[in-house]
Write a structure and sequence with these properties.
- The protein has about 450 residues and is of the alpha/beta class.
- The chain contains 17 helices and 14 strands.
- The chain has helices at about 5-20, 30-35, 55-65, 85-95, 115-125, 165-170, 185-200, 205, 210-235, 240-250, 260-270, 275-285, 300-305, 315-325, 330-350, 385-405, 430-435; strands spanning about 40-45, 70-75, 105-110, 130-135, 155-160, 255, 290-295, 310-315, 355-360, 360-370, 375-380, 410, 415-420, 425-430.
- The strands form two sheets. It has a nine-stranded mixed beta sheet, with helices on both faces.
- α1 (about 5-20) packs across α4 (about 85-95), α7 (about 185-200) packs across α14 (about 315-325) and α9 packs across α14 (about 315-325).
- It is globular and about 75 Å long.
- The mean pLDDT is about 90.
């Protein structure tokens, strides 16, 4: 296709986008209320696909005024093999086609599909007449993954699936801000929480009423992540290895797994691969925001890399869609949900770290650490009874002594209490209440 034809297509897409405008029925996200354009910066929104990055951009369009905003999605099938030249043509085409006074707000969706976009973004962001907002489903858009040419010139907003408060707001369910434990709404909130725990917080899934359709949509999402964010983006040829490796990781969510163990499991299924290939594929999957991991707490970087890591999925709905064993794994689901909410904090703060603690056969699920000390120890145990209560408390106390941390929490299904042991206070709190109180 000639460059002239590509320009015409870009112009047509820009005009169509302008005519359509932002949808009227936008569901507002909490992060959108705080998000603003910053001049002289490449403002970026990063997160897994289908978390609502495009709708967040539309929310911004409404905030600044649609007459000054221009939106284009580089996953539009009409843009064949997008290049930096296509990006460079955007601003001249806008000036040529529309009568507009600066500043121009330019919103570019799924920009990671354009190789070498970083240098263009740096050049454009330096123009006082343009305010740039980018989005993408790759960690290469984050402050940690961004190319050197853009370091210090980006402001990254991470978009996750809906938190529990947003979930309730999407469903137009009101809840009290205080004394929620004694509220008449507690049974209703518990019922909705079970749905949230099982099917997750992806916006389309939350608004879908049919459980069967939810499962179908989630499975289609998974296929899209594999096809677009992994196979196409990284030119992966061993698709069978990749798909089975991801399914293996999802089936072992909230548990410790090593690459050697994964290699042996795949080999037992007749799928031959190397440990180095699995390490590379795992890096790609993490970059797509589909999975993340925690490593063992250790001051030795070597230990953190050598010991098994715990695997978590960015949204519980994928676990249900790929494993179908919610009732038998509710405790693991709870731990995964806690992990995602802690990850929200640590990914945005380079001084924070998230680990698990294990020593002498005892384990604590989460160690929240900052640059100088351990902030909090968290254990997840859905069903609390006399047989396991003492064990969970003992594990926390051992970790507390080892890490010099007194902020101790056990997250439960519906058990609430405060226990004083050896001069240390241990708080027991139901997960659904903890999520409502979280300030993400």
């Amino acid at each position: 296709m000639s460059q002239e034809n590509k320009k015409e297509r870009l112009k047509r897409i820009l005009v169509e986008s302008k005519e359509e405008g932002a949808p009227e029925d936008l569901e507002k996200r909490e992060v959108g209320k705080k998000l603003e354009f910053r001049k002289k910066k490449a403002n970026t929104i990063a997160g897994m696909r289908r978390t609502g990055k495009t709708y967040l951009m539309f929310q911004l369009m409404k905030k600044v005024g649609e007459e000054k905003t221009f939106y284009i999605n580089f996953e539009d099938e009409r843009i064949i093999r997008p290049t930096v030249e296509d990006l460079s043509n955007l601003l001249p085409l806008i000036k040529e086609t529309f009568e507009i006074e600066p500043p121009i707000y330019l919103l570019v969706d799924e920009i990671q599909n354009v190789e070498g976009w970083e240098k263009w973004a740096r050049r454009i962001s330096e123009k006082s007449e343009v305010i740039l907002m980018l989005s993408g489903s790759s960690s290469h858009l984050t402050s940690q993954g961004i190319a050197t040419s853009l370091r210090g010139r980006t402001l990254t907003t991470y978009l996750f699936p809906l938190n529990f408060r947003e979930f309730l707001e999407f469903k137009e369910i009101e809840y009290p801000s205080e004394n929620i434990e004694y509220s008449q709404k507690k049974p209703e909130l518990r019922r909705h929480f079970k749905e949230y725990l099982k099917y997750g917080g992806l916006p389309e899934i939350v608004l879908e009423k049919s459980d069967r359709k939810k499962m179908k949509i989630l499975q289609e999402y998974f296929s899209t992540v594999v096809a677009r964010d992994l196979v196409e983006r990284h030119s992966i040829g061993k698709i069978e290895v990749l798909e089975n490796f991801i399914k293996l990781l999802v089936n072992n969510f909230s548990r410790r797994i090593s690459f050697s163990k994964a290699q042996n499991w795949l080999s037992s299924m007749g799928i031959k691969t190397s440990k180095s290939t699995l390490i590379k594929y795992f890096k790609y999957v993490k970059e797509s925001f589909f999975l993340f991991d925690t490593t063992i707490f250790s001051r030795s970087v070597k230990d953190r890399e050598q010991y098994p890591r715990k695997i978590y999925v960015i949204d519980n709905g994928f676990i249900t869609a790929l494993t179908e064993r919610f009732e038998s794994s509710r405790g693991w689901y709870s731990e995964n949900k806690v992990a995602v909410n802690l990850y929200r904090k640590t990914i945005t703060d380079p001084k924070k770290e998230l680990h698990y603690w294990r020593k002498d056969g005892k384990e604590v699920d989460f160690v929240v650490k900052n640059s100088t000390n351990t902030e909090k120890l968290i254990q997840v145990c859905s069903e609390i009874h006399e047989q396991n209560k003492e064990r969970e408390v003992e594990n926390l106390l051992k970790a507390s002594e080892d890490l010099k941390c007194k902020n101790l929490l056990i997250i439960t299904d519906d058990y609430r209490d405060t226990k004083e042991v050896n001069g240390k206070q241990i708080v027991f709190q139901p997960l659904w209440q903890w999520l409502l109180e979280r300030k993400d």
